[in-house]
Write a structure and sequence with these properties.
It is a single chain. By secondary structure, this protein is mainly α. The chain has a single domain, classed as 434 Repressor (Amino-terminal Domain) (Orthogonal Bundle), CATH 1.10.260. 52% of the residues lie in helices and 0% in strands. The longest helix is centred in the N-terminal third of the chain and has 18 residues, at 12-29. 12% of the residues are buried.
Length: 105
């Protein structure tokens, strides 16, 4: 199965479908039906089916699914601070000044 890095430069819809495929694979690994997962997650079956089919779901719904699949910790890596490999990287970053766009006229 592809990893998230293989879809980074694609459209958000591609990333959403990648996540939906990962959720489905996890659900099947846990031997859960769609209905069984929906009961555990507290979401409606049509909502979940739409997620597996086209990748659309609310953030709250996705978090409920992650909780039911014992995968809530997977969200920990989202938007974490940049990890530097050397002091040179830290110094180079501090030298870069913020650029601003022009004001609309």
């Amino acid at each position: 199965m592809d990893n998230i890095l293989s879809v980074i430069n694609r459209a958000p819809q591609d990333v959403a479908m990648h996540i939906a495929r990962q959720v489905k694979a996890r659900r099947l690994e846990m031997n859960l039906t769609q209905e069984g997962l929906c009961v555990r997650a507290g979401i409606k079956l049509p909502t979940y089916r739409r997620f597996e089919r086209i990748g659309e779901i609310s953030l709250k719904g996705l978090l409920q699914i992650a909780f039911a699949l014992n995968a809530l910790n997977d969200f920990e890596a989202l938007f974490t601070q940049k990890q530097y490999q050397s002091l040179d990287e830290v110094l180079a970053e501090t030298e870069v000044k913020r650029k601003r766009g022009k004001k609309n006229e």
